[in-house]
Amino acid sequence: MKRILRNLFLAAAPLAVAAFSGAASAQTLDGAKLVESGKLTYGVAASFAPFEYMLDGKLTGFDIDFINGLAEKLKVETSAMNMEFKGLIPALQGGRIDIINSAMYINPTRSEQVDFVPYLKIGNNVMVQAGNPKGITGRDDSICGKTIAVTLGGISESQARADNDRCKAAGLGEVKVLTLPTAQDSALSLSQGRADANYESTPGAVMALEKMQGVFEIAGEPFEMNTQIGIATPKGATELQAALQAAIKAMVEDGSYKAMIAKWKLPASVSLFD
């Protein structure tokens, strides 16, 4: 099971959709400071299917196809640095990578540390064991007193800690936040009963139900359905940001952006540019 699993708020950034329409028309990284000339070095935490994960020893997922498409437009090669999610922003701030390409949710705290070029919007689901043995009805009072498995440093950790604060304030019992290195670890802990629920992206939940039939189910309705995710760049890296915006614009116009959404079976609602 572990092997299978292994293969498995909205904060408007300064470079949000409105800025996208006015992005520079030139698709070039000229003038942008790169870790290695001619290469776009990106950080990724390959544990968040279907966006980025390992399959047969290779990086795969929507974000991997997406960054390769951007690189083609920008006429550069890509170089991936796979690491734990918590290490991505420090690596960017330390100049080890040019960008973060890892389905990073945009929120105010992160936007103080990095700039974002948004490219998708998604929601989240509460995932529980099949049969829902703890009777969880969604992201509501039913999760008070329960154990929620989360990715350390990920948006799910922030969500679970906010729920803990809410539950304690209401006198309904604390939420135990079980922090783990990867989303796959969170799913594994849920499947083994060490956690009562985890919070999964809406596309990730669909993939988990498809790949692990009879193991998980969704409890309640999706939440935070307009959460944007984006490519993170260093603060003030305007040339790099403009080039990425231009490359995304080109992918939207030639249909490759929409084709990638369809390939990875993401709902059409994830698009920011229709």
What average pLDDT do the residues reach?
89
Largest sheet report: 8 strands, mixed
CATH superfamily of the largest domain, called what?
Periplasmic binding protein-like II
Q: What CATH first level of the largest domain would be assigned? A: Alpha Beta
SSE-based structural type: alpha/beta
Low-confidence stretches: 1-26
Total of domains: 2
Total helices: the number is 10
Word description of this protein:
This protein has 274 residues and is an alpha/beta fold. It has two domains: 161 residues, Periplasmic binding protein-like II (D-Maltodextrin-Binding Protein, domain 2), CATH 3.40.190.10; 101 residues, D-Maltodextrin-Binding Protein, domain 2. Helices cover 34% and strands 28% of the residues. The protein is built from ten helices and eleven strands. Helix 6 links the parallel strand 8 and strand 9. Helix 3 packs across helix 9 and helix 3 runs antiparallel to helix 10. It is globular, with a radius of gyration of 19 Å. It starts with a helix and ends in an 11-residue tail after the last helix. The relative contact order is 0.22. The N terminus is likely disordered.
How would you describe this structure in keywords?
34% helix, ABC transporter substrate binding protein (Amino acid), 274 residues, Solute-binding_3/MltF_N, D-Maltodextrin-Binding Protein, domain 2, 11 strands, alpha/beta, eight-stranded mixed sheet, SBP_3_CS
